[in-house]
Design brief:
Number of domains: 3
Bound molecules: ligand C2E, calcium ion
Strand content: 15-25%
Shape: elongated
Helix content: 40-55%
Number of strands: 20
Distance between the termini: 70 Å
Number of helices: 18
CATH architecture of the largest domain: Alpha-Beta Barrel
CATH topology of the largest domain: TIM Barrel
Radius of gyration: 38 Å
């Protein structure tokens, strides 16, 4: 029998009752078979072994002593003849029972203690002594009341580790968990857990005392403004919170999982606290399904490239086009790029999309119909590494396309998020590709940063272009344009929807324009051969 099974019996009463009943049964058997001259007294070893192995030393001794008395002084040697046992006989019998119960009971207690220690180790964090994730996972009780799970994560805690080293980091963890423990002392229905690192959870069992939970949340929230004192040094920790509440009778882990989803959303959106909503789950499910079905969609021809023309501000002539990805399902429904591109960007799949769009651009550039136009392709962070940029140059050669026909569009975010971006862009630029900054005005928009990279084109974001109708906005765009002119960069206005905007852009001296006023993105009338 496994120790854990014995352990679970130990918390129940029926084996104890059963053991005593068995002893009584043995006593009656001994009595009705004529007394202790017969062999039946040996049956008593069964309940003795049972009770002492399950309940350990203490109950083992009590039970053995009682059993000994039952078949000892109280039991005749021969019922019919009416002779009683000798004193030595029953004393030795009781002593044997007690000794057996003692030996088995002691070993059972040792095993039980070891079991408890192991399960404590598994379900507790050795650094802080708090319960851990495993404790939450193995908690299978279905509470009849709602349970709220609050997940707390100190952001960038790895940085503390990197800056201060492990020992100091450990002190920060201790201090932070101590502060949380102090707060939770006032809320007896709450229990603190540590997931790992500086991620914690609070489980709140409640019978609709949500007001209490709110005051706990605000008390925890106040920690965000506090500096911790660790080895006499003030340390500032900032954390995010995700909250989810289970329905009555729902598994605790569902609450844990949801609160973690809410926590990731808080971290991603840089807000202090996020409560779980069903939309988050839908979003996750659809992200997973997008990532799973993208390659197949690409192979089946469901990923297509649309194009939107770009025009000269002065004479309106078409000077270029931007390729925009489209996902058209078999039933003709569409997934917008705003939805699938960010998902692909979280995986390496974005590279497959860029490759596909880039090859489209190369083959379109060979089409005589578009010979006077440049073709813009959107690139993402993971498209920039040594291997990929070599591949870009190689492909252009293979197609026999002059790289200056191709605009590589990247946002400021991409510009700053890639290591060695400068050398990657220098490489592409030296090979003749045109580098364009997309959505300019939505990111850092620092002239200093821009002038540090080999940038040829600035695409001014729609939000800035829309503002150009006001005096202040006009001034802002004017200064961007004059900066670009000074550095020999071409400017493109994005999102030009009306003639009024088109005129303002011309007045501002913006070189090219793109937007619904000129054309909406469309599929190519005749798909040119690849
Ligand atoms: P973007 O690169 O800024 O592309 C321009 C977006 O603005 C396009 O949205 C276009 O349809 C829209 N647009 C053009 N003119 C106007 C206008 O006058 N008014 C308004 N309101 N919108 C206009 P779309 O095609 O939905 O693409 C959205 C975004 O998805 C793109 O923004 C780009 O960031 C991304 N994307 C699209 N295709 C690709 C791709 O092949 N690769 C990558 N990495 N991203 C792509
Ligand atoms: Ca773009
Ligand atoms: Ca854009």
């Amino acid at each position: 029998m496994e120790i854990s099974m014995i352990k679970s019996f130990r918390n129940r009463l029926y084996p104890l009752v059963g053991g005593f009943a068995l002893s009584v049964f043995v006593t009656l058997t001994v009595y009705f078979t004529g007394g202790t001259t017969n062999v039946y007294t040996n049956l008593m070893y069964v309940p003795i072994a049972l009770i002492s192995s399950i309940y350990g030393f203490k109950w083992g001794l009590i039970h053995a002593a009682i059993s000994g008395l039952l078949v000892g002084p109280l039991m005749p040697k021969d019922v019919v003849a009416g002779t009683s046992q000798s004193l030595a006989n029953w004393i030795i019998r009781i002593a044997t029972y007690v000794a057996i119960a003692f030996i088995i009971g002691v070993f059972s207690d040792i095993a039980h203690k070891r079991e408890q220690r192991v399960s404590h180790l598994i379900t507790h964090d050795s650094d802080t002594g708090l319960k851990n994730y495993e404790a939450l996972r193995s908690d299978k009780t279905l509470s009849e009341h709602p349970v709220t799970v609050i997940s707390i994560a100190v952001t960038d805690y790895q940085e503390y580790l990197g800056f201060f080293g492990y020992d100091f980091f450990q002190k920060i963890v201790d201090e932070f968990s101590k502060q949380l423990t102090d707060i939770l002392r006032m809320f007896p229905q709450a229990e603190l857990y540590r997931y790992y690192g500086m991620e914690f959870a609070v489980k709140v069992n409640h019978e609709d005392d949500s007001a209490n939970t709110e005051s706990m949340l605000s008390a925890i929230g106040e920690l965000n403004e506090k500096t911790l004192t660790v080895l006499n040094l003030p340390v500032y920790v900032e954390f995010r919170i995700g909250i989810a509440t289970t329905a009555p009778e729902e598994a605790l882990m569902d609450g844990v999982r949801r609160s973690l989803v809410a926590l990731r959303s808080a971290i991603r959106n840089n807000v202090r606290m996020v409560r779980y909503t069903n939309d988050m789950e839908v979003l996750i499910k659809s992200s997973v399904s997008i990532a799973n079905s993208f390659r197949e969609a690409l192979e089946r021809g469901n990923i297509r490239s649309a194009y939107q023309t770009i025009h000269d501000s002065g004479n309106g002539r078409t000077v270029g086009m931007e390729l925009l990805a489209r996902w058209v399902r078999d039933d003709d429904t569409k997934i917008p790029p705003d939805v699938f591109v960010p998902v692909l960007e979280k995986t390496e799949l974005i590279h497959d999309l860029t490759e596909f769009m880039f090859e489209r651009a190369l083959s379109l550039s060979k089409n005589p119909e578009y010979k006077d136009m440049y073709i813009s392709v959107n690139f993402s962070s993971s498209d920039f590494n040594e291997r990929s940029i070599l591949e870009i140059v190689r492909k252009a050669k293979e197609y026999g396309v002059n790289p200056d026909r191709i605009h590589i569009e990247i946002t400021e975010r991409v510009l700053l998020s890639v290591a060695n971006m400068r050398s990657h862009l220098d490489f592409l630029s030296r090979h003749g590709f045109i580098i364009a900054i997309d959505d300019f005005g939505t990111g850092y928009s620092s002239y200093g940063i821009i002038s540090d990279f080999p940038i040829d084109v600035i695409k001014i974001d729609r939000s800035l272009i829309l503002k150009a109708t006001t005096t202040k906005g006009f001034g802002l765009v004017e200064s961007i344009v004059s900066f670009c002119k000074k550095f020999g960069m071409i400017t493109i206005a994005e999102g030009v929807e009306t003639r009024e905007l088109a005129d303002i852009c011309e007045e501002l001296g913006i070189d090219h324009q793109q937007g619904y006023f000129y054309s909406k993105p469309d599929f190519f009338p005749i798909m040119p051969k690849l």
